[in-house]
Automatic annotation (TrEMBL):
Binding partners and assembly: Homodimer.
Positions contributing to NAD(+) binding: 73-86, 284-296
Keywords: Amino-acid biosynthesis, Branched-chain amino acid biosynthesis, Cytoplasm, Leucine biosynthesis, Magnesium, Manganese, Metal-binding, NAD, Oxidoreductase
EC number(s) stated in the UniProt entry for this protein: 1.1.1.85
This protein's record includes keyword Protein biosynthesis: no
A single MF term (Gene Ontology): NAD binding
Cellular component GO terms, alphabetical: cytosol
Protein name: 3-isopropylmalate dehydrogenase
Source taxon at top rank: Bacteria
Pathway as given in its UniProt record: Amino-acid biosynthesis; L-leucine biosynthesis; L-leucine from 3-methyl-2-oxobutanoate: step 3/4
Catalyses which reaction(s): (2R,3S)-3-isopropylmalate + NAD(+) = 4-methyl-2-oxopentanoate + CO2 + NADH
Length: 359
């Protein structure tokens, strides 16, 4: 297992160090794990003048999987856009063809009170947002800021989805729903679009419906994105797999993360057509708390579990990591972001050590 490790910026290096400890412990279980480090984001800019240095992309291309911390920091906010940390992330997704972004939102029984919603609305919540990651208005051309004849400036972007892009993400969605059905009963996909307004969405809805014919065991529904945003807060447990495009998925996945009350707990996977993947926590680089040993490393550690599940097809190891995380929560151990009154607060390092202990 050759893993490229890209700690990035802010709290990235601290949380990735804890995930690397977990990987180290798995090594003593007999897994042949090889880690190689490189810079991305602001760290890439500092080291090589580029948020995605060539050496980093090459390492990622030559590895079986990528573990990423987070990118971004105040000191980079004034750089020209091509040099900004997020560009490193967008470029590596595109260059590696990571079109399928899996963002689970689940509520751990131990953390049900961390949600801003009433416990009965979220307890047992376990949904999967599947976001298309390499198309849509994120990458569509033309885009830019132009000056009109009357001298006024105008910004423009292009929302684009080709049939093949929609088809391949839809297949992933139905397949994930079928796998999850074992646990949850009926396999369900809710495809989210804006087909009442956007032509891109009319095609999206048509193609998703067409792909669905190959998965008769999966119940497909369609929902407009504005309604989906509302339903996620009103009754989130009605969803199982939410299948959507890049921009809607960006927004809905942040919303869904807060249902769990603890963005510090949520991992993600971005997969290519061969299950090679980039794994990262859903949260950002949190520069305000960087270097203080208070960030929650669990989302990154759980991203390693997803890596074992999806890229290396080691469901056993994935569950072992997830069980270890559960056990630290059951012991009452909490980083500040998920601590209720009366629970012992521990730091980033100590949380990483506790997970390693529990493995
Ligand atoms: C995310 C982030 C990125 C995105 C940013 C940092 C470019 O918000 O991964 O959701 O918009 O995709
Ligand atoms: Mg986002």
């Amino acid at each position: 297992m050759k893993i490229a490790v890209l700690p990035g910026d802010g709290i990235g290096p601290e949380i990735v160090a804890q995930a690397a400890k977990v990987l180290g412990a798995l090594r003593s279980d007999g897994l042949k794990i090889e880690l190689e480090y490189a810079h991305i984001g602001g760290a890439g800019y500092d080291a090589a003048g580029d948020p995605l240095p060539d050496a980093t992309l090459k390492l990622a291309q030559d590895s079986d999987a990528v573990l990423l911390g987070a990118v971004g920091g105040y000191q980079y906010d004034t750089l020209a856009r091509p040099l900004r940390p997020e560009q490193g992330l967008l470029r590596i997704r595109k260059a590696l063809g990571l079109f399928a972004n899996l963002r689970p939102a689940m509520v751990y029984p131990e953390l049900v009170d961390a949600s801003s919603l009433k416990p009965e609305l979220v307890s047992g919540l376990d949904i999967m947002i599947l976001r298309e990651l390499t198309g849509d208005i994120y990458f569509g051309q033309p885009r830019g800021i132009r000056t009109l004849e009357n001298g006024e400036r105008q910004g423009f972007d292009t929302m684009l989805y080709s049939e093949s892009e929609i088809r391949r993400i839809a297949h992933v969605g139905f397949q994930i729903a079928m796998k999850r059905a074992g646990k949850n009963g009926q396999a369900k996909v809710c495809s989210v679009d804006k087909a009442n307004v956007l032509d891109t969405s009319i095609l999206w809805r048509e193609i998703v419906g067409d792909v669905a014919k190959q998965y008769p065991a999966v119940a497909l529904s369609h929902m407009y994105v504005d309604n989906a945003a509302m339903q996620l807060i009103r009754a989130p447990k009605q969803f199982d797999v939410i299948l959507t495009g890049n921009i809607f998925g960006d927004i809905l996945s942040d919303e869904a993360s807060m249902l769990t009350g603890s963005i510090g707990m949520l991992p993600s996977a971005s997969l290519d057509a061969n299950n090679k993947g980039l794994y990262e926590p859903c949260h950002g680089s949190a520069p305000d708390i960087a270097g203080k040993d208070i960030a929650n490393p669990l989302a990154t550690i759980l991203s390693v579990a997803m890596m074992m599940r999806y890229t290396f097809a080691r469901e056993d190891i994935a569950q072992k990591i997830e069980t270890a995380v559960r056990s630290t929560l059951q012991q009452g151990l909490r980083t500040g972001d998920i601590a209720e009154a009366g629970k012992q607060r521990i730091g980033t390092e100590a949380m990483g050590d506790a997970v390693v202990q529990a493995l």
